[in-house]
């Protein structure tokens, strides 16, 4: 596994697909990405069938993050929400995510319970409270290869100027990667890009508050990392609705078999080839 920290210091945008379960993680892992992004929205939806509204616990999420990190060769950035509480919780969360094999943790400045960053009604904690969380996260990690991604959700409720001030404070507190959530125009994104020297995150949520830009546009604006948290689960939901609709309407998949992922290839994706090889080796 290559160093994500080193990759982000190099030119060129890192595009990280959102993974939300082990199927999505394994598919993405074989496609040559420099990083994967464990989406909190998608992981909570997939695992619990609940909205991303602060309902998942640290235990819920560190288990998902560990399974994805250990089941993939590609560095994984994982959503750590607010750190699941106060400063001691942040310390516990950072230790747990790092031990789980995650390459970086995203921490945000929302009040508890948090909400998805492209939904309304988000409230943020005072800047100094988040600064303390970042400092604790930085001093807690065992290796500086484990990245602290600091996100502010202040833009939607408090405006772009306050969000920029917060990002500057989180930069000074020692965050490795800076994430101003949900800017609402290309002009705002340009302002973010020219204001900071550290790697910057662009959150590309289809149907969200931020314009979806091309790789070339994001690079020109100064972003180092583009995450696509919703793309995978939105695509999966569309495909499931299509095939389940066929079953419901026609009672069979006989007319759409060629559109499905081949069962033999899926079995190999899940590791059955290793099972078969093991059984042959140890057969009586």
Question: Can you walk me through this structure?
Answer:
Helix 10 (215-221) links the parallel strand 7 and strand 8. This protein has helices spanning 4-8, 22-29, 40-48, 58-70, 87-99, 127-140, 154-158, 160-172, 186-193, 215-221, 231-250, 263-269, 272-281, and strands at 14-19, 36-38, 76-79, 104-108, 147-152, 177-180, 201-203, 225-228. The chain contains 13 helices and 8 strands. Helix 4 (58-70) packs parallel to helix 5 and helix 5 packs parallel to helix 6 (127-140). Strands 6-5-4-3-2-1-8-7 form an 8-stranded parallel beta sheet. The protein starts with a helix and ends with a helix. The chain has a single domain (4-236), classed as Alpha-Beta Barrel (TIM Barrel). With 284 residues, it is of the alpha/beta class. Keywords: Lyase. It comes from Roseovarius pacificus. GO terms for molecular function: oxo-acid-lyase activity. This is 2-Methylisocitrate lyase, PEP mutase family.
- The number of distinct helices, counting runs of at least 4 residues, comes to 13
User: Beta-sheet strand percentage?
Assistant: 5-15%
Biggest sheet, spatial arrangement of strands:
6-5-4-3-2-1-8-7
CATH class membership? Alpha Beta
| Radius of gyration, in angstroms, nearest whole number | 20 Å
Secondary-structure element pattern, one letter each: HEHEHHEHEHEHHEHEHEHHH
Count of distinct strands = 8
User: CATH architecture, please?
Assistant: Alpha-Beta Barrel
Indicate the overall shape: globular
Mean pLDDT: 95
The biggest sheet amounts to: 8 strands, parallel
In terms of quaternary structure, the protein is: single chain
Q: Distance between the terminal alpha carbons, to the nearest Å?
A: 37 Å
CATH fold type: TIM Barrel
